[in-house]
Amino acid sequence: MKKKKHHKLLLLSVVAWLLLYFIFFYQNTNSNLISFSSFTHSTQVRIRPIYDPHVENRTTTKQLKEKDPHHSRAIVLPERPKNLNLHNIWAVKVVLGLWLGVASSDMLNSYLQKTKKKYTDINQYNVTYTRHLKSETNQKKLLCQLKNEPLRTLTGNEDPFASLGWQKLVPRQPLEQATGGPYKTCAVVSSAGAILKSSLGREIDSHDAVLRFNAAPTEGYGNDVGNKTTIRIINSQIMSDPHHMFADSHLYKNITLVAWDPSPYSGNLEKWYKRPDQDLFTAFTEHRKKYPSQPLYILHPDYLWNLWNILQRNTEENIQPNPPSSGFI
């Protein structure tokens, strides 16, 4: 009982400290609408500010009682401080964005914004996308767009693979048929450390199909991540790096494997075959000859970049010009 009381007192103390901190913080922040103009434009959030009472065209009492159309509470910004500085402006932008449930790169400080821009400008895969932002696509519509993108894998009939005899290497059954579906339920198991000590193993294994990524282990972690694997999506590094023992490890046996490798945005398969990001082609050829009955597919680069196009088309900011990760696929 004493321990519980002690924990409650400690929790109350922390909450009280946080409240005092935010009260002090808001007393030293800026409510000038101009400070937020670039932020509100980038996030498309409607904000009704309260100006200084001596400024003309100030917000009326009726306007203050109006609710923001996207939120259940009215947006009331803090009073304007006398000693305005850039740090306060940036801090308010961050707090306000988190409070409204929105985020953008404008919330980063200038150093991080420059770093992000440099990283984006590298453009390793020569992406030439011309953006055409769609107006306010919600999460449900975006998910439908991604689901409606036809799944494509290499068939072996494309050049240069056709001239290399890949028609005999690529599985005859399409990926959709090789997995044994359709399934009523499936579990997509993340590779995050947060799943440790979750005791979700039994629930995961109860699903008709279980999808895992790259070299995420199951042995020794069955109580948390389960032991069943139906499909494993792997990147080209798993196949090319000897450290992962792709050809012999039990991790990649008796399941359906779906591999992928970043390619040029242009979709030139000849260039991709000659200069892959990681040499998955040699490993694919050897594995198919050694284990011809095991389904092993390579995702078509156009499919990966089409997913990227959908993301960029529905994102106001420029995202990294790299194909989506294994987890996203």
From TrEMBL:
Q: In which compartments does the protein localize?
A: Golgi apparatus, Golgi stack membrane; Secreted
What is this enzyme's EC? 2.4.3.1
Position of the signal peptide: none
Question: Carries keyword Transmembrane?
Answer: yes
GO MF terms on file?
beta-galactoside alpha-2,6-sialyltransferase activity
Q: Which reaction(s) are listed as its catalytic activity?
A: a beta-D-galactoside + CMP-N-acetyl-beta-neuraminate = an N-acetyl-alpha-neuraminyl-(2->6)-beta-D-galactosyl derivative + CMP + H(+)
Q: Which Pfam families match?
A: Glyco_transf_29
Alphabetized UniProt keyword annotations: Disulfide bond, Glycoprotein, Glycosyltransferase, Golgi apparatus, Membrane, Secreted, Signal-anchor, Transferase, Transmembrane, Transmembrane helix
- Record's GO cellular component terms: extracellular region; Golgi cisterna membrane
What family does this chain come from, according to its entry?
A: Belongs to the glycosyltransferase 29 family.
Q: List the protein's name.
A: Beta-galactoside alpha-2,6-sialyltransferase 1
What species is this protein from?
Clarias magur
